[in-house]
Write a structure and sequence with these properties.
With about 180 residues, this protein is mainly β. It has one domain: Deoxyuridine triphosphatase (dUTPase) (Deoxyuridine 5'-Triphosphate Nucleotidohydrolase, Chain A), CATH 2.70.40.10. The protein is built from two helices and 13 strands. The strands form five sheets. The chain has a four-stranded antiparallel sheet. A three-stranded antiparallel sheet has the order 6-11-9, with no helix packed on it. The chain is globular, with a radius of gyration of 17 Å.
């Protein structure tokens, strides 16, 4: 069951949901509007390999904004630290952003119970699009869970800014060079 915006605000005030910083003007009917953080990452390699950490570079968004380009993956982050030990979360783009042809969470929108982080966003644009740090870019919804809650303890735990893929940490080689 999805929480209403007023319920999100009540649960945040009670400490059962974390949204920092929290602004009551960002409470929506069934979600909370979040903002784009100032840091982006892009990969610098023509082919990304899941077994190796890719070369990448950091972009700090100026207050005047930066034009994001098509055919490029940008990793951004939420300005807010968001999550809950009591609820699961899902992140979505604002309609206003998606109708500009910008996608911010197209394959990883689920926030596990216990993941309280600045969320890394997968950003792609259909045509050159200006983005600003601090602009409202998406919304987070919270969901009641059913069953025993197991707190998230994954490789992105504790994130406070954008984080590149950590998939390479899963690959362990045997001495003979073969995958396990």
């Amino acid at each position: 069951m999805i929480l209403t915006g007023p319920e999100i605000a009540r649960e945040a005030a009670a400490g059962r949901i974390t949204i920092k910083p929290f602004d009551t003007s960002d409470v929506e009917p069934n979600s909370y509007g979040f903002h784009l953080g100032p840091t982006l990452l892009t990969y610098d390699e023509p082919v990304l390999h899941p077994e190796r950490r890719a070369r990448r570079h950091t972009i700090i968004l100026p207050t005047s904004g930066r034009t994001l380009l098509p055919e490029r993956l940008y990793l951004g982050h939420t300005q807010e630290v968001i999550g809950s030990d009591h609820y699961a979360a899902t992140l979505y783009a604002c309609r206003s952003i998606s109708t500009l042809g910008a996608w911010i969470t197209f394959s990883a929108p689920l926030g596990h119970t216990g993941a309280i982080v600045a969320w890394t966003l997968e950003i792609r644009v259909a045509q050159p699009t200006l983005m600003y740090p601090g602009m409202r870019i998406g919304k987070v919804a919270f969901w009641r869970t059913r069953g025993t809650i197991e707190r998230y303890r994954g490789r992105y735990e504790g994130s406070r800014t954008v984080v590149e893929s950590r998939l390479s940490a899963e690959f362990v080689r045997h001495e003979n060079g073969c995958d396990p």
